[in-house]
Design a protein that fits this description.
Layout lengths: L5 H11 L5 E6 L6 H9 L4 E5 L5 H18 L15 H11 L5 E6 L1 H7 L3 H12 L5 E7 L2 H8 L12 E4 L5 H5 L7 H11 L3 H4 L8 H8 L6 H13 L3 H12 L5 H8 L3 H13 L3 E4 L11 E4 L2 H9 L4 H5 L3 H9 L2 H22 L7 E11 L4 E11 L3 E8 L7 H11 L6 E8 L5 H10 L2 E5 H4 L2
Parallel strand pairs: 1-4, 1-5, 2-3, 3-4, 10-11, 11-12
Antiparallel strand pairs: 6-7, 8-9, 9-10
Helix pairs in contact: 4-6, 9-16, 9-19, 13-14, 14-15, 20-21
């Protein structure tokens, strides 16, 4: 099942139509849909598709040879090779493809590239030499794809890589945002879709585990509370694939999911030195599981906090370990009741993220009160109240202007007191032009609506309106 990725497909097809040599790097975390995108792109095109394995160089060379000759047999090329030929080495195999593509457009996909490069250390250097030799005469459309984010960014895109400067384009494939995720389903209500995004996030493979013919409750029970389901084991399985010490990484994510957000607090809860913990956190950030935040007005700060950026991981670590014993003893209804009692508070951060995405969308369309360059959260001390306060959204524009936003995922209509609090907190900042956006799950009280009209620089937006 393929959906979304229209911009990426359009860009790939545009490059393909140049009929010149192209070398594209496609990378992103596991399950995000890289291979699915490539498969959609190569439909109807002459393609050699090779997937690297976590094995030795000889086995990968044999598999690559099979991919090349499978293509040759499909397109009836004359060949002097036997029925199961194997190239003598990778240089011979790759050069054969480069030569083959001098007279016609051929796509060569090397999927799971890090496995190939690790099995044979000279692979990148061979590619470099052949690209330099044939780039002006070959019509090859070369794609290398990988899930190891750090490897792809350092060993392929990094300036120390032999391939540095050879690529003609790169695509970092990210999870869908909320509005893209909504396109995956037809039958969920608008409110249910927010919860589905909150529990599955925007990773296509996780979204595909959801069934829009079922209720949210049934989906949670069938996936997160079912020991035989794919998502029940997914966080642990993914960590085992990506890191060497999954137990420590697991403990760090659990610490963050249960309320620890500062480096020192996370390290203390896990029982490691802060310097060691920092390295683990950096790796989790590169995997797209954890994010690092500072107040938007401060580039580097002791106020730095860490949170779980992937909704599926955030939901799993927030609810599954705490209910593991009763889940494994078949008490699924009780586990769901424990979750449902806390689901509204859990959705607060999800709704805040949805509102930020919505504001960015409006900003791109030129429909915000100001055009802003950056958007984030802010937290800090309030000298007047002598308390630590937070602002859900602070978007900073040009000419000393800003948007202040508050997001409320509650069943009650948002009252004017919320607006007044936001205005009071905005006085901590010296912006000359200030605009206020309130986002509500349901709606606003008459007093809040009247206050917004009176001020004139306030936007009141319901969740329903965001999806209109």
């Amino acid at each position: 099942m393929f959906f979304g990725r229209e911009k990426e497909l359009q860009s790939l097809n545009h490059l393909y139509q140049t009929n010149k040599f192209q070398f594209l790097v496609i990378y992103g975390r596991r399950r995000v849909g890289k291979t699915t995108l490539i498969n959609e792109f190569v439909k109807g095109k002459e393609t050699i598709f090779f997937t690297g394995l976590e094995t030795n160089a000889r086995q990968n060379l044999e598999n690559f040879s099979k991919s090349v000759f499978s293509y040759i047999n499909n397109f009836n090329f004359a060949s002097s090779f036997g029925s199961t030929p194997v190239f003598q080495n990778f240089q011979e195999a790759l050069e054969y493809v480069f030569i083959l593509s001098q007279n016609k457009r051929i796509i060569l996909v090397i999927d799971e590239y890090p496995y190939v490069a690790k099995s044979y250390e000279g692979f990148a250097s061979i590619l470099q030499v052949l690209i330099d030799k044939y780039k002006d005469t070959s019509k090859l459309f070369l794609i290398i794809c990988g899930s190891s984010m750090s490897f792809m960014e350092e060993q392929v895109l990094g300036y120390k890589s032999p391939l540095y400067g050879r690529r003609t384009g790169q695509f970092k494939i990210l999870p869908f945002d909320f509005f893209e995720s909504c396109k995956c389903f037809k039958n969920f209500s608008k409110l249910d879709m927010a919860i589905i995004y909150g529990i599955a996030g925007g990773t296509p493979h996780y979204l595909l585990q959801m069934d829009d013919n079922l209720t949210v409750e049934e989906n949670i029970k069938n996936t997160f509370l079912n020991p035989n389901s794919y998502l029940f084991e997914e966080p642990n399985n993914l960590l085992k694939q990506e890191v060497r010490e999954p137990a420590t990484y697991n403990a760090i994510i659990s610490a963050i999911a249960t309320g620890s957000s500062k480096l020192s607090d996370i390290a203390n809860k896990v029982g490691v030195e802060t310097s060691v913990c920092s390295v683990y956190l950096k790796n989790l950030i590169s995997l797209g599981i954890i994010k690092k935040e500072t107040p938007i007005t401060e580039k580097s700060s002791r106020k730095t906090i860490y949170s779980i950026s992937d909704n599926m991981f955030r939901f799993w670590y927030r609810f599954v370990p705490a209910n593991m014993s009763i889940i494994q003893n078949g008490m699924i209804d009780l586990a769901y009741r424990n979750i449902s009692e806390n689901l509204s508070s859990y959705m607060g951060a999800v709704f805040e993220d949805i509102c930020k995405q919505y504001l960015w969308s409006l900003n791109r369309q030129g429909k915000t009160a100001i055009t802003f360059m950056d958007l984030g959260r802010w937290w800090g001390g309030d000298p007047e109240s002598k308390n630590e306060v937070e602002i859900d959204i602070l978007a900073i524009g040009a000419k000393n202007s800003a948007i202040f936003g508050e997001c409320k995922w509650t069943n009650e209509n948002v009252d004017s007191s919320v607006l007044e609090t936001l205005i009071r907190r905005s006085r901590l900042f010296p912006f000359e032009k200030k605009y206020f956006y309130l986002f509500a799950k349901r709606g606003f009280t008459p007093a809040c609506i009247e206050k917004a009209k009176e001020l004139g620089n306030v936007q009141l937006i319901t969740y329903e309106e965001m999806l209109a």
